[in-house]
Amino acid sequence: MKSPAEFPIAPDDRGNFKNRGRYAILAVTSNARFMAPFRNLLFARTGRVAQRARNRQEEAPESNSEPLRLLSVVIPAHNEEGCICSTVEHLHLELRLHDIPHEIVVVDDASTDSTWSKLLNLVGHILEVKPVQNQGEHGFGRAVAKGLDSMSGDAVVVMMADESDDCRDVVRYWELLNQGWDAVFGSRFMKGGGVIDYPWLKRRLNRMANFFIRVMFRIKLDDTTNAFKAYRASVIEGCRPLLSPHFNLTVELPLKTIVRGYSWTVIPITWRNRRSGISKLALKEMGSRYLFICLYMWLEKYFSRGDYKKREQPVSRN
CATH number for the 71-303 domain, one of 2.40.50.100, 3.90.550.10, 3.30.390.50, 3.30.70.640? Predict the structure, then answer.
């Protein structure tokens, strides 16, 4: 067999190469003189694209220059007696080690086990715990909304009660919000992120749903459906009224943030499947609800004429 260098690569009178096989291609690409202009062009374009990506990721907006005062972590809980104490204790320890002023708002959403009594016991030795009972209609979205209404901070992280989210990522969220971002989203599927013991079917459905959202809204975020995200309090107010009573709130909040013009960035995060209790996400019931919110936000994006866009605050000059 001839080596790639033995194949003639000179073009004919029409400028076409006579040998179109894989060896001819190898010969062409191995010719330094021939490939130099194309390689330089490719590297230059790649460098510009990479630099733009770095600029988008690293340059926080200047409009939010004042440091944040208090971080609220909202945790909805329904029958989480087996893990709620460890979740709160580990979170509190991590935030205290980094000197982050915080409150932990845990919303008991009609639990029939001892979740509420365990929360009351936690208050005795963790003053930052703020237990709240959802006395109205129940559902994941309603419980989160109740927590958002009860928080005192000027920034908030929505976190799951089953300790599937990493407390260390909460610290990174806080740091990026203090750099000026309106919102910080985590992705378990970008480079640097990861999942542990993720159910195979659930992961397949997750990837399809997030691909659908990416195409529908032309965004790079590949983990929109994950609840674990951080927002400034002003963003939450700008996203009201909240429509989703169930897990579709996990899609409503980030899409409203993006569509309404708030600044956001994405970091890799890790996720671990729960070790106690059962998941409250009913996939069969949520499909149409996710679709409703996506269609609602798509209509707002393209037909509201900017009526709900973020209003820029005038810069005060002394």
Answer: 3.90.550.10
Tens-digit pLDDT profile for residues 101-119: 999 999 999 999 999 999 9
From 122, 200, 194, select the one nearest 164 (Cα to Cα).
Answer: 194
What is the distance between the alpha carbons of residues 67 and 3, in angstroms, rounded to a whole number?
Answer: 64
pTM value is: 0.78
C-beta of residue 140 within 8 angstroms of C-beta of residue 109: yes
Residues 91-104 as b or e (16 or more Cβ within 10 Å = b): bbebbeeeebebbb
Does residue 93 carry a pLDDT above 90?
yes
- Residue with the two structure tokens 């409250």: 280
* pLDDT of res. 279: 62
- In the chain, alpha helices (H): 22-30, 32-58, 84-97, 115-123, 140-150, 167-178, 200-217, 233-238, 249-259, 283-303
In the chain, the N- to C-terminal Cα span, in Å, equals 79
Position 6 scores a pLDDT of: 45
Radius of gyration of the chain (CA): 25
Mean pLDDT value across residues 178-190 = 97
More confident residue, 69 or 47: 69
Per-residue pLDDT tens for 252-308? Answer: 999 999 999 999 999 999 999 987 766 655 556 668 899 999 999 999 999 999 999
Structure-block tokens of residue 318: 């002394």
The domain limits of the chain are 21-49, 71-303
Q: Which residues contact 107 (CB under 8 A, 6 or more apart)?
A: 74, 75, 76, 77, 132, 133, 134, 143, 144, 146, 147, 150
Give the separation between CA 102 and CA 155, rounded to whole angstroms. 10
